[in-house]
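Here is an idea for our session: we take a single protein and study its fold together. To get us started, please write out a protein record for me. Start from the sequence, derive the backbone structure tokens from it, and show both lines together. Go ahead whenever you are ready, and we will take it from there:
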Amino acid sequence: MTILRTSMRNFAAHKGRMALSAIAVLLSVAFVCGTLVFTDTMNSTFDKLFAATSADVTVSPKGAKGEEEQPRNGKPAALPAGTVEQVRKAEGVKAAEGVVTSMSVTVVDKDNENMGSSTGAPTIAGNWTANDRKSMDITSGRAPRAPDEIMVDADTADKHGLELGDELRTIAVTGDRTAKITGIATFQVTNPGAAIVYFDTATAQKFLLGAPDVFTNVAVTAEGGVADGELKQQVARTLGAGAFTYQTQKETADAGREDIGSFLDVMKYAMLGFAGIALLVGVFLIVNTFSMLVAQRTREIGLMRALGSSRKQVNRSVLIEALLLGVVGSLLGVGAGVALAVGLMELMGSMGMNLNTSELTVKPATPVIGVVLGVVVTVLAAYLPARRAGKVSPMAALRDAGTPADGRAGLVRGVLGGLLTAGGLAGLLAASQADKATSGSMMLALGVLLSLLGFVMIGPLLAGVVVRVLSMVVLRLFGSVGRLAERNALRNPRRTGATGAALMIGLALVACLSVVGSSMVASATDELDKSVGADYILQSDTGAPITPAAAEKMRQSPHLEHVSEYKIIDASLTTADGRRTEAKDVTAASPTYADDLRVETVEGELSAAYGANAMSVDEDFAKKYDLSVGDELSVAFKDGRTARLTLRAVTSSETSIDNGAYYMSLATAKRYVPESAMPLNDIMFGKAVDGQEKEAYAALKSGLESYPQYKVRDQADFKQSLQDQVGQLLNMVYGLLALAIIVAVLGVVNTLALSVVERTREIGLMRAIGLSRRQLRRMIRLESVVIALFGALLGLGLGMGWGATAQKLLALEGLKVLEIPWPTILMVFVGSAFVGLVAALVPAFRAGRMNVLNAIATE
């Protein structure tokens, strides 16, 4: 109990010095708990939505489950309308209703604005059924009854300011349809952002499916007392198992959850990864805090030892303080994590994904995980300082000594750090020389880990060299004050190394990703310049296929020399010796596509692959199956017949655009795939008549203006879109890494604050012999700046090495240009100096306010 009281008294006495360490624990735990609460809330929201919108049993066409949300021909798989009557005859069926649902639609308002979600949630069109009334109520107007009527969900109506009587235009594969809003339906559960519109059943069938006598599925309701599983068996017995798929409510909900689960898992683990980085950075802060507190309490610890406390008791006393710090920081972090989750929900709401805070889901395991994680990390980080505290001898009470120096430990640390660094560099070198990206990525991961650990361990050794070099450039300009700042930074290399290492980690990742992102954009731009001959590209940013009406607009646009179409068809290939491949995506394109994309071939000519009954494959496929020009392949189209095609070209695998594509002409594809099953164009290309590029561009923009889901881009636009996409991704990652950098900055602040306390008498003496308050504050600020620049220099250098190695692996996938974003690197380096300056403001202010006589008298 004496040890516990002592620990609690020390913790209370140093609560101000512990505050920044507690904030570091708080931020890290908050990010972990916030991520778990946010993703659990999203999972719960989708679970309730899927459960509310799923029928007791759903009957779908065979093969519909697991297909793409937007089928390539723009029409969902359908079943005959007569199936509904057959289902009604099954035992245990209370009701059966035909359902029409399609996600291959775009809805625009009177201002020609696409009403689809910007977060990736789908736009859904269908007919209003009894099953919909289980999860939605018509809160205004009525359901549609005629072809020119439509109903919209309330969330979409609120977002776009829609009212009864407003007109909406719906674009589908069968054409465009304008209808007036006759009703607004409100979800009784949370709709996570999908835009939903309803037509009357006959209109939905003709407009969305292209036929009057089909449905996408049948929603079956069970009679009282009949279990879903039993009903499923009875319906399957009535219809037979061959042509249909049957799912209970739970199975339908599970399938929907599985579809969305992969996205949520990626987001969850990515955010937890960044939280882990912040925790790692927080470890350095906690180690530094306890190391300095132990050093400042050397005489106190020595007295405890002189009065009979054992090493174990002293060690335990420090660890109890760490435990208290971890508990306080973690508990606050759990609360902050819930607040963070609410903030994330509001942010997603501003982007179009509706998440109701009343659905907030905090599982019992979440706070437990947060507290355990925070406490364990804090106690482990404090173990080494606690161990050093236990080594303080009783004689230390009779002299003003720091914690015992352990030269052997420093030597072991240096040797081990050197070995790890060498191993990391060897791993990076091996990755840069790898022949395959898969094996190289493993070596890259190993190299990154070892080099990071190595730099952390040799940080104190590097501090002595790097800080001196930086001081010559930065600090010597400030005369004696700069030299004092340099000596303060070098006084304890281990402390400087740990403080700089915390900043190094975040900035290394920033530099690495900046190099990778810039190299990707530069490589794609270079490939575009070399390979793309088309002047204009038409595509949807969501990957939706191009409707026939929009495709016709492009074909009829003036000032174009030619238009190339590009379709993706599912097929399986069988070689002449009978070896069958798994399903492949085969590209069917216009012959002019050979001019629009100049693909390098290793054998034959690509233009020959667009001839009758001809095709091309890529180099890797040809090597795997020992194929060469002139060989025959049997191509079985998924929704068509089997063709015997002759191999006329083998394309190089050393490309980034269309890498691995198999080409054939549209004419060949149309010969074996029926028109009803022929996919829509994924993308289209246009070539302007010489000298009429501006007129052609303006005409395309004008002609396709009424189709806002598609973008017309020239090569400059396309390059800019690539840059914007990579830039948005990097900005998102930088935003998440900002948490680790904030924790690192807190470490700089804490180190300086504790250092000021540690040097109280020294500061008093310097003030007594003439150092002004301004000079004192400048000295502390310069010390902070040089520590920050030390961490930045190590981090940026390490990160650029990682990024350059990663680019070598990307080169194996065709991204061959290495580009170092020097403006970004320099901006981050200069920004680090500013960060160091800001971090020193409070410690420098407090130092300047010290009373000189009291400072000199401090023990």
In short: The chain is about 55% helix and 15% strand. The mean pLDDT is 85. Residues 460-532+715-859 form one domain. The radius of gyration is 34 Å.
